[in-house]
Design goal:
170 residues, alpha/beta, Rossmann fold, three-stranded parallel sheet, 36% helix, 22% strand, prenylation, nucleotide-binding, cell membrane, hydrolase
Length: 170
């Protein structure tokens, strides 16, 4: 969020951020809820899932346990959202630590393929693909909203009262 990598980062239980960004020439506000995967906060996480319009499921390529946990998170999200086609990306972080890799790119791509979602590797330290995953997800959210609006023929929407687009990313 702050484009600053903290070497001795201490993960939080849950955190939220709000930021305005320009997506394809249009200013959008994004709300990012970091659920940090803490089991103690499962009830709160369900509320986050309910309000989320799109999801980045991030694991460390250096920890197989975090990769295995993505399966359960995906199932929880689908259960809460009751929607198999929710905008979703599987993200392998710490791509700068290839010598410590425990999860192969092939294994991660296979899981993403089974889920029918994109897979991207990032590095918070070098910022490789960090913006990409957020912008890719925001584009998926926007596309989904346009599709939903087209399917309802725009009913219930007054085009003269256009609100600033927002994305809620978990």
């Amino acid at each position: 969020m702050k484009e600053d990598f903290v070497e001795d980062y201490e993960p939080t239980k849950a955190d939220s951020y709000r930021k305005k960004v320009v997506l394809d020439g249009e200013e959008v506000q994004i709300d990012i809820l970091d659920t940090a995967g803490q089991e103690d906060y499962a009830a709160i996480r369900d509320n986050y899932f309910r309000s989320g319009e799109g999801f980045l499921c991030v694991f460390s390529i250096t920890e197989d346990d975090s990769f295995q946990a993505t399966q359960e998170f995906r199932e929880q999200i689908l259960r809460v959202k009751n929607d198999e086609h929710i905008p979703f990306l599987l993200v392998g972080n710490k791509a700068d630590l290839t010598e410590r890799r425990k999860v192969s790119e092939e294994e991660a791509k296979n899981r993403a393929g089974q889920w029918g979602v994109p897979y991207v590797e990032t590095s918070a330290k070098t910022r490789a693909n960090v913006d990409k995953v957020f912008f890719d997800l925001m584009r998926e959210i926007r596309s989904r909203k346009l599709e939903d609006n087209k399917n309802t023929n725009g009913k219930g929407k007054d085009p003269g009262k256009r609100k600033k687009p927002k994305c809620c990313i978990l």
